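Lay summary. Proteins are chains of building blocks that fold into shapes, and those shapes determine what they do. In this project we predict the shape from the chain. Here is one chain we studied, written as its sequence of building blocks.
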Amino acid sequence: MVSMFVIVRHGNTFTAGESPRRIGARTDLPLTDAGHDQGRALAAHFASLDWHFGKAFVSPLLRTRQTAEAIIAGQTGPVTLETADFLREIDHGPDENQTEDAVTARIGKQALAAWDQDAVPPDGWSVDAELRIAAWHSLFTNSSNDDRPTLLVTSNGAARFALLADPCLRARLHNLPTLKLPTGSYGIIRKASDGQLEVPVWGKRP
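And here is the predicted shape, written in a compact code that computers can read:
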């Protein structure tokens, strides 16, 4: 039997034409109308695949909870949302709530590339990498094989640490163009009956 973990990044928090900013743990924005649409699109997509979530975890932030609630609304049976702090977005330090141009000017394109390709945090960011990796590892290790997938709704900065939580997953990182999940997209980590983990999907947007 196979266990499946569906890792979703929340929907949009900036409107069309608005300059995106680096928002993290200290900036609790709601979804935009487009973000709510993305949540509903995910719900319809998962329903079309006949996925019935057995468990659902969400970060404490509003944008992730709103996305999760939209997905759960599309389920045929009840699903209880559990809050998990390790899913909370990272803290961007001096770059929190700054535009991408301002962030790039401070830390450079190389530092951003290292973050998106290898999860190496730029100077001044607080990511709690060891705690996050340990939490993901515990989730994967202690989960019992179940034919119902587990839903986890989080943010871009937090999701990537799932890929660092197991040697098999780390070995497959070179197959991914980026660790980044686009808004309103999801990735899958699958655990086989022998305990081996794989990443068949990363960054798919319905």
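What the prediction tells us: The longest strand covers residues 197-204.
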